[in-house]
């Protein structure tokens, strides 16, 4: 996304890829006639992807990517005894599932949990994802500091979930996803609750790319197609390059990087 935006702005961009294929975690493994995504199969935060494509004067649909909304059930969470929890972005489905474990009052607590998660989401997107942090002073922005208390930075997502769910199983259901961030559910953090919102919210939900993440009509095409900017190239299967980027200064239509070693 960064390379494409720079090229769109008129910079000459070269993308270095250490492998002989593109995509990283969005690439494919072919084995005995089967095809596997190396990374996630569900697309979260679709609005951010739509935003990126709009910045490049196109749309996801016009680029040949067919996004399929997971309607009834996003996925099933299985427990050791064979019981399962049907994870869904549909509130009616979630009401049945939550009340099955938490009782009639459980759904109201679930909505309170989602309300808190929505606060985390809005602050994360507007105050973090859409902002540049070039120094420690950026962390002291008044617009961000005023939300610190609401983000419960000293509490873990498990501690927050325990305030809304009485059963251990649903506490696990609504906290296990933080493992994808490389942390434990009992690790303090200000953004982990966001995961519970983005894949359960009726507004955002989960999308599945019908052409898969690494399809020929997916993001891969942007390595070979122009984006109305300077010439863009891709170097694949390159050797390791040691770089020491000491400064980044925009002069005219070039980005100067100090490279050492």
From TrEMBL:
Keyword hit for rRNA-binding: no
Membrane topology classification: Single-pass membrane protein
A GO CC term attached to the entry: membrane
Cofactor: NAD(+)
Alphabetic keyword roster: Carotenoid biosynthesis, Oxidoreductase
Location(s), subcellular: Membrane
Catalytically driven reaction(s): all-trans-phytofluene + A = all-trans-zeta-carotene + AH2; all-trans-neurosporene + A = all-trans-lycopene + AH2; all-trans-zeta-carotene + A = all-trans-neurosporene + AH2; 15-cis-phytoene + A = all-trans-phytofluene + AH2
Pathway of action: Carotenoid biosynthesis
Family statement: Belongs to the carotenoid/retinoid oxidoreductase family.
Protein known as: Phytoene desaturase
Organism (species): Verticillium longisporum (Verticillium dahliae var. longisporum)
